């Protein structure tokens, strides 16, 4: 073997590289950085964080109050102090200033009296 075959060119890692040629250091991951790069995900997370407790609260309250309407006709009432009137497809709440107007007036008093007789 000759001496020329034993000589190797210098390795690239041994060569001095300027500062501008080095790759930038990786930036650590932060939630703030992720939210600024992906605003859609950030908005979805906020909406989810607000909606889930509201849905759970409503579901729990719904289980407590399964029956909103009265089961018997005698138990149905109307608000005569501030009734809602519907005319031509629009609803209006009217404030009745009569002091004797009850908030819970029975709807089927006459029907139940006739049935009892």
Brief summary of the model shown:
The protein is an alpha+beta fold and 117 residues long. The chain has helices spanning 31-37, 39-64, 109-116; strands at 77-78, 84-87, 90-93, 105-106.
Give the helix proportion (percent range).
25-40%
Task: List the helices and strands in order.
Answer: HHEEEEH
User: Compute the gyration radius: what is it?
Assistant: 39 Å
How do the strands line up in the largest sheet?
1-4
- What are the segments in which pLDDT stays under 50 over at least 5 consecutive residues? none
Class from helix and strand fractions = alpha+beta
Number of strands: 4
Strand content: 5-15%
Distinct helical segment count:
3
How far do the termini sit from each other?
129 Å
How does the major sheet shape up?
Answer: 2 strands, antiparallel
Q: Summarize model confidence as the mean pLDDT.
A: 80
Q: Categorize the overall geometry.
A: rod-shaped
Which terms summarize this structure?
117 residues; alpha+beta; two-stranded antiparallel ribbon; 4 strands; 35% helix; rod-shaped
Written description of the protein model:
This protein is an alpha+beta fold. Among the domains are: 37 residues; 39 residues, no CATH class. The protein is 35% helix and 10% strand. It is built from three helices and four strands. It has a two-stranded antiparallel ribbon with strand order 1-4. Strands 2-3 form a two-stranded antiparallel ribbon. A hairpin with a 2-residue loop joins β2 and β3. The relative contact order is 0.07. The mean pLDDT is 80.
